[in-house]
From TrEMBL:
It is found in: Secreted. This is peptidylglycine monooxygenase. InterPro entries: Cu2_ascorb_mOase-like_C, Cu2_ascorb_mOase_CS-2, Cu2_ascorb_mOase_N, Cu2_ascorb_mOase_N_sf, Cu2_monoox_C, PHM/PAL, PHM/PNGase_F_dom_sf. It catalyses: a [peptide]-C-terminal glycine + 2 L-ascorbate + O2 = a [peptide]-C-terminal (2S)-2-hydroxyglycine + 2 monodehydro-L-ascorbate radical + H2O. Its cofactor is Cu(2+). One of its GO terms (cellular component) is membrane. Binds 2 Cu(2+) ions per subunit. It comes from the Eukaryota. Disulfide bonds join 69-114, 102-129, 225-337, 297-318. It comes from Drosophila sechellia.
Length: 365
């Protein structure tokens, strides 16, 4: 994999990061990503796109199922627009990666344990973003997904005039055998960005569930949320994520017509054990105030035990990421939508507000 030193000439963001060691959690290699500056006047004048390598600083995880975070501070005097994501990772090393947009990072450390749901570790941990700051997921990757380019004219706004003042990279290291000899890792993502203003601002809505899957059973984990903001969303990409028991994940826009019937429009449907990249949505029809977004994960267990939702490879997850843009104004204030999941929450519950539910089977992929 490329090292930061090989691509330092392409840097454009002003990064201010304190170098603080993490004792016990990881063995750190040379930390090269401490401070970079580059004159952006030529890029700004031409509207050119540059690339920034946001990579783990040569870490060597020593704890299985470790979630590790590292931050960068975006230049607060300039507004940038991220227009593409080029992953620098393989599934043999990283189980998955998330890129958070934060008002403040979870700590002032260079790297930290950010496995919020995993309290088994004795290491001190913190969330990716500070407890009282803006927090949203910008991008996600798993299973050798390829590069994502946003549609023409669309970008994620960061820096000045944006609540995103820091970007935090989270990498889940499910297995650590390859690091026992002292090897290090620089998994991460190359961010394509520009200073040229974008009228179409991108956002990512994460839908997911809590819950559990019974032993030797097929279970549906479901969630739904209503858009209650006066904004028009243009969906363009989706990504699904489960661990090993996932068979299919599907997402829908649900709209009530003039006759009072709910019409279900598929946004995306995918086998989660294929590359977990962002795919084009099945439909790009707008999502408006009053619409619901509904997600189902079909899980099939061959285990002789109950499997709960959780962070480790022995647990499960049910996630659907919907990427969208707005033509004017800011993106949704709602960044996350989660339900209790099975056995407590289902679309068919009387209080879910859902009806006319389509018959959805994994075999229809």
């Amino acid at each position: 994999m490329p090292r930061i030193s090989e691509v330092a000439a392409s840097l454009g963001l002003l990064l201010l990061i304190g170098v603080i060691s993490v004792d016990g959690l990881v063995k750190e290699g040379d930390y090269q990503n401490s401070l970079y500056q580059q004159n952006l006047e030529s890029n700004s004048a031409t509207g050119a796109t540059a690339s920034f390598p946001f990579l783990m600083p040569n870490v060597s995880p020593q704890t299985p199922d470790l979630y590790l975070c590292t931050p960068i501070k975006v230049d607060p005097t300039t507004t940038y627009y991220i227009v593409g994501f080029n992953p620098n990772a393989t599934m043999n090393t990283a189980h998955h990666m998330l890129l958070y947009g934060c008002g403040e990072p979870g700590t002032s450390k260079t790297t930290w344990n950010c496995g919020e749901m995993n309290r088994a570790s004795q290491e001190e941990s913190a969330s990716p973003c500070g407890p009282h700051s803006n927090s949203q997921i910008v991008y996600a990757w798993a299973r050798d997904a390829q590069k994502l380019n946003l549609p023409e004219g669309v970008g994620f706004k960061v820096g000045k005039n944006s609540p995103i003042k820091y970007l935090v990279l989270q990498v889940h290291y499910a297995h650590i055998d390859k690091f026992r000899d002292g090897s290090t890792d620089d998994s991460g993502v190359f961010l394509d960005y520009t200073e040229e203003p974008r009228k179409k601002l991108a956002g990512t809505l994460l839908l997911g569930t809590d819950g559990q899957i019974p032993a030797m059973k097929t279970e549906h984990l479901e969630t739904a949320c209503e858009v209650n903001e006066q904004k028009v969303l243009h969906p363009f990409a989706y990504r699904v994520h489960t661990h090993g028991l996932g068979k299919v994940v599907s997402g829908y826009r649900v709209r009530t017509n003039s006759e009072g019937e709910q019409e279900w429009l598929q946004l995306g449907k995918r086998d989660p054990l294929t590359p977990q990249m962002f795919y084009n949505t099945s439909n790009t029809d707008p999502i408006i105030e009053g619409d619901k977004i509904a997600v189902r994960c079909t899980m099939q267990s061959t285990r002789h035990r109950t499997t709960k939702i959780g962070p480790t490879n022995e647990d499960e997850m049910c996630n659907f990421y919907l990427m969208y843009y707005v033509d004017h104004g800011e993106t949704l204030n709602m960044k996350f939508c989660f339900s209790q999941g099975a056995p407590y929450y289902f679309w068919s519950n009387p209080d879910s507000g859902l009806h006319n539910i389509p018959h959805i089977e994994a075999s229809t992929l």
